[in-house]
């Protein structure tokens, strides 16, 4: 059985590897739809609030009104230096790869799975007309890709 839940958060980011408008810092009102695989064990499978109790704090504390930033983006070092110099605190969600919707889907799928939920897929809405459908198969494939890429990057460092 599949239970579907929807969440929203606001976050800024930029795609530093692109040579278009998305290279600039900009924000999105992200929509996240989670499709949870659950098994019936009686009259109830799962209380909907069980999802919310864990996922809403994750999104609120890690993502909402923050900035997604790639660890290797030159802006990351600048923001760190600014924070040290001024004492300002920024909510930065630091990723090991560029902050595309595809990569963000991987991170969200990973983090929600780590909470103990079995996801069938997620849909990440970046704009009103742009949605990533990200499946468990995508996640398994990306786990291999990011693990191999991480090993290669470490070996050349």
Give the helix/strand layout.
Elements: E1 2-13, E2 26-37, H1 48-62, E3 66-70, H2 74-86, E4 92-95, H3 101-114, E5 119-127, E6 130-135, H4 136-156
Parallel strand pairs: 1-3, 3-4
Antiparallel strand pairs: 1-2, 2-5, 5-6
Highest-level CATH class: Alpha Beta
Spatial gap, N to C terminus: 45 Å
CATH superfamily: 6-pyruvoyl tetrahydropterin synthase/QueD
Q: SS-based structural class?
A: alpha/beta
Query: Which oligomeric form is depicted?
Result: single chain
Helical segment tally? 4
CATH fold node name: Tetrahydropterin Synthase, Chain A
- Give the rounded overall mean pLDDT: 91
Order of helices and strands: EEHEHEHEEH
Please tell me the total number of domains.
1
The Cα radius of gyration reads: 17 Å
Strand count = 6
Low-confidence stretches: 153-157
* Strand numbers in spatial order across the main sheet: 4-3-1-2-5-6
Indicate the percent of residues in helices: 40-55%
Largest sheet: 6 strands, mixed
What CATH architecture do you see? 2-Layer Sandwich
Judging from the principal axes of the Cα atoms, what is the shape? Answer: globular
How much beta, percentage-wise?
25-35%
Overview of the structural elements:
The chain has one domain: 6-pyruvoyl tetrahydropterin synthase/QueD (Tetrahydropterin Synthase, Chain A, 2-Layer Sandwich), CATH 3.30.479.10. The chain contains four helices and six strands. The chain has helices at 48-62, 74-86, 101-114, 136-156; strands at residues 2-13, 26-37, 66-70, 92-95, 119-127, 130-135. It has a six-stranded mixed sheet. The relative contact order is 0.16.
